[in-house]
């Protein structure tokens, strides 16, 4: 009995010892679980996005880096490139062109000046002489003889006055020669010489217009070819195909072609216009020659009638 009591006491003590050992381990496990639960709670705020003030502070720094990047690379900012392209005016291109291209442009400019000078001078001249010739033809329309026609014209210097003077001179030189056919033939030859001289005089300057209209495009093309050749030489030396480097030289070369066309187109148009106007004027000169020939024929016939009446 005593032995069983000892066994029971030993068993109770063993159970108590086990309980005493188990309670500290459970106490240590509880804080561990609480700490594990606290860790996500502390980590959650760190996953939130940064405050706007922090972003605002970071943006200027990025813009500064972007602004300084072209400068660090050695390139020019786009603003300076745009300013350089705006300087391509015709005057600046002319000043920066090659000496030969400049000579071509100056020559074409002088040719254009000569074209407009001839245009103004010929317009004034043709308008004046056409008006005078029409007025002279109107005055001798009712004249019966060369002397009466000259009296109607007065001392005015015109192509009709020259024709009448040639007819009277031939009639005077042929006095006493029988046969009116020879007199009229010789007078017609004199009229033809006067008309040809007037045609040459009125066409003065037309050859210059024809030459300018025919050669100016080729002269401008020569300047363009020379300028483009120099432009390609500059491209090979600079070893770049950047538009800001290539464009000025090509633009200067094309300016020579523009000068050539600006000189040639007005010259051709003015030449064609004066060809029509000159043709109309020469028709009036032909009418004047016919009027002088008719007056000479009347004087000759009247002379023969008076001679027969006297006989």
Q: What key phrases describe this protein's structure?
A:
311 residues; mainly alpha; 10 helices
Task: Give a structural overview.
With 311 residues, the chain is mainly alpha-helical. The chain has a domain at 99-310. It is 87% helix and 0% strand. It contains 10 helices and no strands. The longest helix has 68 residues, at 243-310. 19% of the residues are buried.
Task: Give the end-to-end Cα distance, rounded to a whole number of Å.
Answer: 215 Å
Number of strands: 0
Rg for CA atoms: 55 Å
Q: Pairing-aware structural class of the strands and helices?
A: mainly alpha
- Tally of helical segments: 10
Shape: rod-shaped
- N-to-C order of helices and strands: HHHHHHHHHH
Mean pLDDT score, rounded? 75
Largest sheet: none
Helix residue percentage = over 70%
Describe the structure in brief.
The chain has 311 residues and is mainly alpha-helical. The protein has a domain at 99-310.
């Amino acid at each position: 009995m005593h032995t069983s009591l000892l066994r029971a006491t030993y068993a109770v003590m063993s159970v108590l010892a086990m309980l005493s050992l188990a309670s500290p381990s459970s106490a240590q496990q509880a804080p561990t679980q609480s700490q594990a639960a606290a860790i996500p709670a502390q980590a959650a705020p760190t996953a939130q996005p940064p405050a706007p003030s922090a972003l605002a502070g970071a943006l200027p720094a990025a813009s500064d880096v972007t602004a300084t990047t072209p400068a660090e690379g050695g390139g020019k900012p786009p603003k300076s490139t745009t300013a350089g392209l705006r300087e391509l005016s015709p005057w600046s291109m002319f000043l920066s062109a090659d000496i030969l291209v400049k000579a071509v442009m100056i020559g074409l400019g002088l040719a254009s000046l000569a074209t407009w000078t001839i245009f103004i001078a010929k317009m004034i001249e043709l308008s004046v002489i056409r008006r005078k010739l029409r007025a002279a033809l109107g005055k001798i329309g009712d004249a019966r003889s060369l002397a009466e026609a000259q009296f109607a014209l007065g001392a005015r210097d015109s192509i009709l006055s020259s024709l009448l003077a040639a007819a009277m001179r031939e009639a005077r030189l042929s006095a006493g020669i029988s046969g009116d056919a020879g007199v009229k033939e010789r007078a017609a030859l004199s009229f033809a010489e006067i008309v040809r001289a007037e045609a040459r005089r009125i066409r003065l300057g037309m050859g210059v217009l024809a030459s300018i209209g025919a050669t100016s495009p080729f002269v401008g093309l020569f300047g363009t070819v020379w300028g483009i050749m120099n432009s390609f030489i500059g491209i090979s030396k600079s070893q770049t195909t950047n538009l800001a480097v290539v464009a000025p030289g090509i633009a200067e070369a094309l300016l020579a072609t523009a000068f050539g066309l600006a000189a040639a187109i007005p010259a051709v148009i003015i030449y064609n216009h004066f060809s029509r106007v000159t043709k109309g004027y020469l028709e009036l000169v032909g009418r004047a020659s016919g009027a002088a020939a008719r007056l000479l024929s009347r004087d000759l016939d009247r002379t023969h009638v008076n001679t027969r009446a006297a006989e």
